[in-house]
Every structure is written in C-alpha cells, then in structure tokens.
Design goal:
Blueprint: E1 2-6, E2 21-26, H1 34-39, H2 44-51, E3 61-65, E4 74-79, H3 88-103, E5 109-113, H4 124-138, E6 158-162, H5 168-193, H6 201-215, E7 218-222, H7 224-229, H8 233-239, E8 247-254, E9 263-267, E10 269-273, H9 293-308, E11 313-323, E12 334-337, E13 343-346, H10 353-364, E14 371-376, H11 380-386, E15 391-395, H12 399-415, E16 419-422, H13 426-429, E17 439-440, H14 448-457, E18 465-469, E19 475-476, E20 482-483, H15 488-501
Helix pairs in contact: 3-4, 4-5, 5-9, 5-15, 6-9, 8-10, 9-15, 10-14, 12-15
The structure holds ligand BES, manganese (II) ion and zinc ion.
Manganese (II) ion is lined by residues 273, 275, 323, 350, 352.
C-alpha cells in the first residue's frame, strides 16, 4: 500500500484532481463539512444527501460515478456523524468504512479529503493514523499456512491524504509514524498467527536476526548452554520440558548517544504453553500458540522504532521456549534457583511466564535501563478483570513509577491501544509465601493478575519498571480468531513521545 500526503494550495483544486476515487465527508442532518461544501459546485453532493441515499451517519457510504464538476472518476461520500465537532468513534468508523469500500473498488488510486483536524479532542496525526491503520487492517490476511491463498487484496493501492498546506509538514511526520506502527502491528500479527510448530523459539530468533540485518540493529541469540552459563535456572526449568531448543534473544537499537540509558522491552516468548505437568484443558488450547505475543510486540516495536530512527536507545529482550509436559518437565513442588539467586517453589507449572520473565528482568539490570517494560500474556485472571479492551498496567506506586504509568496510559489513549492501571501492594505479596523456598510461583485464585505482577516486582528492584499483562488484548478468539498486534501502537507511541520530549542536541 502506497500512502502520501497531498497539500493543495487551494482546496477547490481537488475538483481538478484526476484520481480513481475522491473520498469526501458528509454529516447527518444534510450538513456538509466546509471542504466538501467548497468542492460541491454542481450541488450533486447536497442533492445526494437530500435524496436520502446516504444518511450521513458515521460509517455510511455512497459511491457516485462520474460526478459533475470533478475530474475524479468516482466520489465516495462517507458519513461522519452528527455535526462538525466530529466524535473520535465516528471518525474511526468512517475511516474503516472508507477502507472497506477501497478494498473492493475498481479504482487503483484515491484521494481522501476529510476534515482531519476537526475531530474532537484529537490531533490531525491521530485522524491520519486511523485512516492508515484501517486500510492496513482491511487488507490483512493470515494465510501464510494455507495452500490456496485468500483472495489478494484488490482495489485501491495508492492513497493520498489531503491536508491544508500549513499542515503538510506535520502530516508527513504523522504519516511516517502511522506507517511504521501499522507495519510493526502487521509483523506482530503475522508472528502471533503462525502455528507453534512453525513459530518456534528458533524461528523467533531467526526473525530477530533478519530484523537486525535489515534495520541495522545489534542482535545476540543465546542458546541453552549460554543460558545455563548465566544461571537462569528458572527460565531453564520451563525450557527443559520440551525438545525444542530455548533461545534468549537480545536486540539493540542505538538511536541516542552510546552512554545514554536505554528503554528496555522484555517480551514473554512462550511459542506454546500447554501448561506443563499442570496441563491445561483441551478446549481452546490451540490459542496458547499466542503465548508469544509479548515477544512479537517487542519485535514489532523494535522494527517501528528503527524505521522511524527515533533518537534514543532501545533494547529488546525475549526469553523464548515451550511449556510442555514430559519426563523432564517441572513438577509441582519443584524448587528452582533464579538468576537473581532467589529460590522459587513451582506450585503450578502453568504459571511459567513469570519463571521466564524473572530471569530476563534480572538480565536487564546489566543495561542500567532508564525504564524497563515487560509485555506478557501472563494471566487468565487479567482477562477476567479487564476483558479484551484494556491491557493490565502494573507498576510500583512511587513518584517515578506513577510518572511512567501516566506516560504509558497517555500513550495508550493517544494510540487507541489502551491500558488500565492495577495495584502492586505488599498485602498481595503475602500470597506468594512458600514453606520451602524464598517465593512461590502462584498466589492462589484471588487477584491472580496482581500476584503475578508482585512476583515480577521482586526481580525489578534495581530500576524503574512497568508490567503489561496483554492476555486479554493480544489476540481475539471465536470467528475473528487472530493476533491483534497490540500493544505495538501503545509502545511505539510511548517511545515517540519520549523522543519528542528530549532536548534537541546540537
Ligand atoms: N499463558 C497463560 C495465561 C493465559 C491464559 C493467557 C489464558 C490468556 C488466556 C499463563 O501462562 C498461565 O497459564 N497462567 C495461569 C496462571 C495460574 C496457574 C496461576 C492462568 O492464568 O491460569
Ligand atoms: Mn501457563
Ligand atoms: Zn503462558
């Protein structure tokens, strides 16, 4: 898909643009946005509204062929809802209606001329991203494993987004961000959707190496022996239940001065989680191929950051293995020693994510992170608590961590990839007491997502840290089963904002 920004000197010149399709907004109650009004010299658009052929309700569409007064072959009218202060939900609906229409149109190129700056409480860049994301989403296919590919995305391949000249520069920057995010989301979705027998830890490592080559990142892939040498006894205890070799992947993007503290992203990379000896029930177990979506989000975000050449340092860490029952697998009651030296009693082998992450978070100390964020499909309890709308956000509750939490929440809101903050308190830590080791790996049924976060908290004392539980947001079940690519938009937006806040160096 080819996107560009078009900034005509005078809006009415859009009448003279030769294009396969010009998409214009209309409102309910027969009203027209200023831009549409200015272009509707022949009055056909107003007439279409009067005729009742299009209601103007958000997402309603009407296609007019060979419109009078336009060089465009078609006009696509799209409803933006009630009035000129456009609600963001209405705009999103309009964007996805345009994307749907474009996907099946005979036209190859199009111009979108919507009032991008008139969305209530949002900036032009947000509206632009909605358009780009909707088009990417509509053309997304998960047919990598199908012998007969799904029908290729047809329709419009080239889209120009029209803005006023004064907005051209910021629109171009916003477009670059929108595309980097959309491509990062696509990478994360592709990885998530691949089956566990293809997307193994080795495959994730190969993907990281490819990314490193194409985007000039540093990469290190540690194998079992090297992981043993680091004394990651907790991670290895999960890995040893499977014949598939574990990998510990480190990606380094250096966009800032070498000595500047990096943001570290740690992604849970369980390429399949059967639960181990504490075996999961069979129904829906296939969805545990998505247990590497944290890792996929790290790869997608690293790609976006590198594409945007953000002026800061980012490190991605991915501990990856399978969690299977076998003669060598962890057993309930086993005690293992983490890289940090803390001993862990494994009361449930299905609480394996934290066993990987604790060692990865200890490893992260060597980078002296400015902040570290782990991303994990960690608990079913988080799905119970927050459903599929918000990721769970956990941090400690001091000033530095409140500030980090606020940054992540704001990035989530801005990108439409939201999180909800949950508590970490000593009272919950009590639930992780073990009679035989320093800590147990489960805290019982109450507050399962919080005790999981409390477990991780014990391994992150040396830096500012946040934990994102994406169990409810990383993929969809049912007819729309598939990875969402979340939280790549939130994380990329977070890093974009951090880059913007930095004082410009001479
Ligand atoms: N990967 C799962 C979490 C999960 C479960 C995500 C269902 C999405 C849907 C994780 O490894 C796990 O199995 N967690 C257990 C923890 C429990 C044993 C304390 C869970 O949530 O059931
Ligand atoms: Mn599990
Ligand atoms: Zn898991």
């Amino acid at each position: 898909m080819d996107f560009s920004i078009k900034a005509p000197d005078k809006a009415p010149s859009l009448n003279a643009e030769k294009t396969g399709c010009l998409a214009l907004g209309v409102f309910e109650n027969q009203k027209l946005p200023q831009l549409t009004k200015a272009l509707d010299r022949a009055g056909d658009i107003a007439a279409a509204l009067r005729s009742g052929d299009i209601s103007g309700k958000a997402g309603s569409t009407l296609l007019l062929r060979q419109p009078k007064g336009f060089a465009a072959e078609r006009l696509l009218l799209v409803g933006l809802g009630k009035d000129d202060a456009i609600a963001d939900k209405d705009f999103s609906q309009a964007a996805s209606a345009i994307a749907s229409a474009f996907a099946t149109l005979g036209a190859k190129d199009a111009i979108v001329a919507l009032p991008l700056s008139d969305v209530k409480g949002r900036e032009l860049g947000w509206a632009l991203r909605q358009c780009v994301a909707a088009v990417h989403d509509k053309s997304y296919r998960s047919d990598a494993m199908k012998s007969k590919k799904d029908a290729a995305a047809e329709g419009v391949r080239k889209i120009a987004l029209a803005v006023t000249p004064d907005a051209a520069t910021s629109a171009r920057a916003a477009l670059a961000q929108a595309q980097a995010i959309a491509r990062g989301v696509t990478l994360a979705r592709d990885l998530g959707n691949l089956p566990g027998n293809v997307c193994t830890p080795t495959y994730l490592a190969a993907t990281a190496r490819k990314l490193a080559k194409s985007h000039r990142l540093g990469v290190e892939v540690l194998d079992r022996k090297q992981i043993e040498a680091l004394k990651m006894g907790s991670f290895l205890s999960v890995a040893k239940g499977s014949d598939e070799p574990p990998k510990f992947i480190v990606l380094k993007y250096q966009g800032g001065p070498a000595r500047e503290a990096p943001t570290v992203l740690v992604g849970k990379g369980l390429t399949f989680d059967a639960g181990g000896i504490s075996l999961k029930p069979g129904a829906g177990m296939d969805e545990m191929k998505f247990d590497m979506c944290g890792a996929a989000a790290v790869l997608g975000t690293m790609q976006a950051v590198a594409e945007l050449k953000l002026p800061q340092n980012v490190i991605g860490i991915i501990p990856s293995c399978e969690n299977l029952p076998s003669g060598r697998a962890n057993k309930p009651g086993d005690v293992v020693t983490s890289m940090a030296g803390q001993t862990i009693e494994i009361l449930n082998t299905d609480a394996e994510g934290r066993l990987l992450l604790c060692d990865a978070l200890t490893y992260a100390e060597r980078f002296k992170p400015a902040v570290a964020i782990d991303i994990a499909t960690l608990t079913g309890a988080c799905v119970t608590a927050l459903g599929h709308h918000n990721s769970g956000l956990f941090t400690r509750h001091d000033d530095a961590h409140d500030a980090l939490a606020d940054e992540l929440l704001a990035a989530g809101k801005a990108s439409g990839d939201t999180a909800w903050r949950m508590p970490i308190e000593d009272a919950y830590q009590e639930q992780l007491k073990s009679n035989f080791a320093d800590i147990a790996n489960i805290g019982g049924p109450p507050a399962g997502s919080i005790t999981a976060a409390c477990f991780l908290e014990r391994f992150t004392k040396k830096y500012t840290w946040a934990h994102l539980d994406i169990a409810g947001t990383a993929w969809k079940s049912g007819a729309a089963k598939g990875a969402t690519g979340r939280p790549v938009p939130m994380l990329t937006e977070f890093l974009i904002r951090r880059s913007a806040k930095k004082p410009k160096r001479k």
